[in-house]
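Troubleshooting log. The previous structure file for this entry was overwritten by mistake, so regenerating from the original sequence record. Sequence copied from the archived sheet and checked twice against the printout by T.R.
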Amino acid sequence: MNTREQKFDENLMMKIITTIPYFMHKVAHTLPKQEKPGTLNRTQHRTLWLIYHEGKKCMGSLAEHLNIEKGSFTSVVDTLIDKGMVEKTRDTEDRRKTLIQLTLKGKKLVEDHLSLVSRAVSQKLQALKDDEYRKFIRAINDLHEVIMKL
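Regenerated output below.
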């Protein structure tokens, strides 16, 4: 067993799996509850955020990125279309592909939610000392950089 295998033990694996979701859970509890009927579920929100971040994408690529079976993902997209959040367009380079893009309503929802989440994260980070804050930001940036290489 090499050094990397020895260091990558079960405890480290649990930290990887739980840390970011735990942080987002802590942040989510500070957000105002959505009171409107028919609000979006977590998968629908994640889909909108992904499209917002990466631009229009084909359904297969979205489903793969979100780790959802393509057949199951169709109902997610159909619901978002029904709610006016996304629309389907044909890929101009490959007519066989259908692209999913945000509507103005979907973009506004993501931007409003992004603003709420940014304020909530900022509020949570206020509890940190300056050196802890810098360490947290550096760790997030390092983690992002490494994950993008995988």
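DSSP finds seven helices and three strands in the chain. Archived copy saved in two places this time.
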